[in-house]
Amino acid sequence: MQLHETPFGLYQVTSFRQSFQPMPSILSISGVSKTYATGFKALKEVNLDIQRGEIFALLGPNGAGKTTLISIICGIVNRSSGTVTVDGHDINKDYRAARSLIGLVPQELTIDAFESVWRTVNYSRGLFGKPANPAFVEKVLRDLSLWDKKDAKAITLSGGMKRRLMIAKALSHEPRVLFLDEPTAGVDVELRQDMWAMVRRLREDGVTIILTTHYIEEAEEMADRVGVINRGEIILVEGKAELMRKLGRKQIRIELREPLSSVPDGLSRYALELSGDGTELTYTYDNQSDRPGVASLIRDLEASGIQFRDLDTKNSSLEEIFVNLLRQEP
Ligand SMILES: Nc1ncnc2c1ncn2[C@@H]1O[C@H](COP(=O)(O)OP(=O)(O)O)[C@@H](O)[C@H]1O
Ligand SMILES: [Mg+2]
C-alpha cells in the first residue's frame, strides 16, 4: 500500500493491485442481442466474460436462449447486435482463428451413421485444417472409452457411445474452449458420471468448459461459476459458492423432547414453523436478512422451557435459489 498527499492535504491510499494484470478472459460477449426472422427476441443485450480454465454453467429453463447464445458464439446463428471475441479474436473479423479455438458438442446428434468412429474424428480434425495426428486422435478415443470401437460404424453404437463420439469429434482439433449444450439430457446416470470425470480431466489440461443445462444439480455439481439466463437475459452471474452464500436460505430443524400444541408467544419473532405432530420446529433465515441468529434462538428456547433432542441445519439447494430468483422476475 502507498500513501499519497493530495492537493487538499489529505492522504489517499492506492494499492499495488493495478500492477497485477488479471488474465484477460478467454471469451468475451458484449451487448449481444438476437431477434429471429419471426420477430422473436431470443437474446437481449447479453454481456458475459468467461475466465480461462473455468467450468461455467449457463443455467436456464427451456427456451431461455442458451442454444441461441452458443450458436452465435460458434458462428451458426448470426447475432443482431454486439461483439464476441474468443481469446481476442473477433468471431466476425477473425472467424477462422476464433472458430478453431472452439469445440462444440451440440444438443442434437450430428454424426454420419455409416462412417467409422476413427474416420469421423479424423475427418472433423481435417475440416479445421489441422494436420493429421493419429496419436492425438487415439488419445481422445481412449479417454472417451471408444478406442475398441474405432472401426465400428456410428450406426452400430449405443446412445451413450454416440454422445461420446460427438465429444471426440468436438475435441478433434484440440480446441481451448469446449461448449457442451445440454450434455446429459436423456443420458443415463453412469454415462453422466463418466462425462463429468472427462470434463474435469479436460479442465486439468487447461480447456475452458461452458455447459448449458436446465438441471440445477448439474450446475451445482460441476460448475465453478453459474450464469442464470431467463427469457433472453442473464439475470445473475456468480461463483457457485458465492451464489449459495448470498442467496442461500438456511433452515434449522429442531427436534423437540416433548410435543408442543403451539409455538409460545415468546418465540414469535423467529416465525417458527411447527410440524403437524408438534415434535419439530423449523427456523428459516437467509444469510443476508436481519433475522436473529441461532444462538439467540437457542437461548430463547431455553427461556421458554422448551427442550430439544436434536438440531440440524441444511443449506438450500440451487434448485430452491433458482425458483426464488425466477419468482422475483416481473
Ligand atoms: N430459428 C428460430 N426462429 C425463431 N425462433 C427461434 C429459433 N430458434 C429458437 N427460437 C426461439 O428462441 C427461444 C430460445 O431458444 P433456444 O436458444 O433454443 O433456448 P434454450 O436452448 O435455452 O432452450 C425459444 O423461444 C425458441 O423458440
Ligand atoms: Mg437449447
Brief summary of the model shown:
With 330 residues, the chain is of the alpha/beta class.
List the helices and strands and how they pair.
Layout lengths: L1 E4 L5 E4 L12 E9 L5 E10 L4 E5 L6 H8 L7 E6 L2 E2 L4 H6 L1 E4 L11 H11 L6 H10 L15 H13 L5 E5 L7 H16 L3 E6 L2 H7 L2 E6 L2 E7 H8 L1 E8 L16 E2 L5 E7 L7 H10 L4 E8 L2 H11 L2
Bound molecules: adenosine-5'-diphosphate and magnesium ion.
Could you explain how this protein is built, in words?
This protein has 330 residues and is of the alpha/beta class. The chain has 2 domains: 218 residues, P-loop containing nucleotide triphosphate hydrolases (Rossmann fold); 74 residues, Alpha-Beta Plaits (2-Layer Sandwich), CATH 3.30.70. Helices cover 30% and strands 28% of the residues. It contains 10 helices and 16 strands. It has a 6-stranded mixed beta sheet, sandwiched between helices. Strands 4-3-6-7 form a 4-stranded antiparallel beta sheet. β14 and β15 form a beta hairpin. α3 runs parallel beside α5. It is elongated, with a radius of gyration of 26 Å. The two termini are 45 Å apart. The N terminus is likely disordered. Adenosine-5'-diphosphate (ADP) binds next to α1. The site of magnesium ion (MG) has 5 residues, from α1.
Q: Report the principal-axis shape.
A: elongated
Output the radius of gyration.
26 Å
Q: At the third CATH level, what is the topology name of the largest domain?
A: Rossmann fold
Taking all residues together, what is the mean pLDDT?
A: 86
Q: Which secondary-structure class do the elements indicate?
A: alpha/beta
